[in-house]
Specification:
With about 290 residues, the chain is an alpha/beta fold. It has two domains: about 160 residues, 3-Layer(aba) Sandwich (Rossmann fold), CATH 3.40.50.1000; about 100 residues, Hypothetical Protein, Haloacid Dehalogenase-like Hydrolase, Chain: A, domain 2. It has a nine-stranded mixed sheet. A six-stranded mixed sheet has the order 9-8-7-10-12-11. Helix 9 links the parallel strand 14 and strand 15. The longest helix has 14 residues. It is globular and about 55 Å long. The relative contact order is 0.20.
């Protein structure tokens, strides 16, 4: 399906220095691990067109930020090789620029402990994700194998033993757990924001901590554009957890493979990720 405009947006928007925020999975890379469990998401590689687009953005004085639900420890060399100006990870919980973490918001330990107790009682399996480590909470006897190196625990004591720092930003789970978690809405939905990623997975992060808040923090750190004015801001995304990011910028762009809700709010719908929609969208706005 060809790229299509969903609102008035054109190449003339490129007159100002721009900051462009990119989701990762479903935007910069295509997650084939859904079809091949042996293929870790950490190893997914952007296409040559994406690498070229990032280089051309830099050459034109624009800044590119990765803005992902992934935590910092799951952003591998293929993505780091894009040489972005900064990374917003953990669905907005962690902001780093030039390799330095400037803002980080983890789940408070007391809340984390209570969360584990509720999850165990509901028999819901999750992966707790942090900037430095991830740990899978599984039912008794089960072992987590989806991502190599992620340890398995079965209760709060196990989590304390494996990850004594208890430093996590969010937790992810299969989408079939969402109705179960909603049965305990008085606990979960008053403390966390729930997101259905639309790919058979869901996640919860601290209420009010999302990609939009991460974008705002990054822009505060950047300050004014080189000409003393404001940056022109763009964002590319495909999933429900991208909605706060898209609302936080001047020009929201949806991938051709995006969920209907994402496309409905976009100023422009570009090609699908596997058709190099990022490069198409950037060229449409005259950014490359």
């Amino acid at each position: 399906m060809p790229a299509t405009p969903a609102a008035n947006a054109s190449a003339s928007d490129a007159a100002n220095a721009a900051v462009v925020f990119f989701d990762v999975d479903g935007t910069l890379v295509w997650d084939r691990s859904v079809d091949d469990p042996e293929n870790s998401i950490v190893d997914l590689v952007p296409t040559p067109a994406v690498y070229d687009a990032f280089e051309r953005l830099r050459d034109r004085g624009h800044k590119a930020f990765i803005c992902t639900g992934r935590t910092l420890d799951s952003i591998g060399k293929p993505l780091l090789s894009l040489k972005s100006a900064g990374i917003i990870s953990g669905a907005g919980a962690c902001v780093s620029i030039d390799g330095e973490i400037l803002a980080e918001q983890s789940i408070p330990v007391e809340l984390l402990e209570e969360t584990v107790r509720h999850l165990v009682a509901l028999r819901v399996e999750v992966v707790f994700e942090g900037a430095r480590e991830s740990v899978a909470l599984m039912r008794p006897g089960a072992v987590y194998r989806a991502i190599p190196g992620v340890p398995t625990v079965h209760d709060l004591e196990g989590l304390r033993r494996v990850a004594p720092a208890m430093d996590f930003e969010k937790f992810a789970f299969f989408a079939d757990a969402i109705p179960v978690l909603k049965r305990d809405a008085d606990f979960f939905l008053t403390r966390y924001d729930l997101c259905d990623l639309g790919i058979g997975l869901g996640e919860m992060s601290l209420a009010g901590v999302n990609k939009g808040s991460g974008v705002q923090r990054a822009l505060e750190v950047l300050g004014q554009a080189p000409d003393g004015g404001s940056w022109r801001t763009y964002a590319f995304g495909d999933s429900e957890n991208d909605l706060p990011m898209l609302r936080a910028v001047d020009v929201p762009v949806a991938m051709g493979n995006a969920l209907p809700r994402v496309k409905a709010m976009a100023a422009y719908v570009t090609d699908r990720v596997e058709q190099d929609g990022v490069a198409t969208g950037l060229a449409h706005f005259g950014l490359i």
